[in-house]
Amino acid sequence: MITDNHGRKVNYLRLAVTDRCNLRCFYCMPEEGLNWLSRSELMSYEEMLQICALLVKMGIEKIRITGGEPFVRKDIMKFLTALSKLKGLNELTITTNGVLTAPYVPELKKLGIKSVNLSLDTLDAGRFFAITGRDEFANVMQTMEELLKHGIEVKLNTVVMEGKNIQDLIPLVELTKELPVSVRFIEEMPFNGDGHIYNGLKWDYVRILEEVSKGFPGIKKVTDPLFSTSYNYEVPGHKGGVGIIAAYSRTFCGTCNRVRITPVGELKTCLYDDGLLNIRDLIRQGIAENEIAATLLTAFNTRAKDGWEAERLRVVHKGVHESMATIGG
Ligand code: SAM
Known about the structure:
- By secondary structure, the chain is α/β, with parallel strands linked by helices.
- The protein contains eleven helices and 14 strands.
- The chain has a twelve-stranded mixed sheet with strand order 9-10-11-8-7-6-5-4-3-12-13-14.
- Strand 13 and strand 14 form a beta hairpin.
- It is globular.
- It binds S-adenosylmethionine.
């Protein structure tokens, strides 16, 4: 078991397998894309598997594959298959935008994947295009249908954006009436790859709840599961649930159990830090596994108390402007 210097259990890894994405959500990356990583900079699947196996031996129990968009990386299913066989890994899950995912759903089910986070900011095809820059709404909806058809739990990730999708909040909660999906409204963060200027948070978790309550006055708080990053609610009579993630207000750091690895192997023990060490480099230098494990433990033992401290301690990038696609949202 891994415990950090603040007594928090660390058992959850989020691994970003690529920085590339087939959408251009304006709050995540600029229309022209990013300065894409070269193949040699990216970790190979073998390297990622080696790191995951080591971390699972050390006490990681859950791995989420994210990106960029995981399904744009070639042979992702082979990698997921190998990961799913790791002994000691209790849960393998994915965050995807759903553009390419639908045909893979039966295979995901066979691998034992029980839950998928699907990013969806609107239920209107026109607004989807305005937000993502791509005409892919129908494919995302098809992925949602396929996931539900195969009995895979769906959590919708919805970034709440002034002037873009406020009119979607109520319809998204309405969707949970008949469908067993959980919609999670996320505060917009400054990680936009400088795609647009971040003018401060307009919709914090309190305002989001007020807005949702206007349409659903009966909405009720429910107990948050252990390590939950969302405040969780239910609307009586609805099959699905509602969550609000205070990603910018950072109210959940006290129970944070997660670490991240970027597509180039940078370890982040907080979303807001700028990387503590590069595991890919340690592997490529041929450092022995027990030494890598010791280095990782040192990193886990010098974790920032919360996202505010992590942001203050940044050395390389002083502002948090890099894209979520490079840090594993
Ligand atoms: N491509 C996959 C997807 O879209 O789900 C995985 C990577 S994406 C970076 C992961 C999540 O980060 C998405 O739900 C996205 O909406 C969220 N995200 C990206 N930039 C964000 C920002 N500036 N503020 C809040 N959430 C953001």
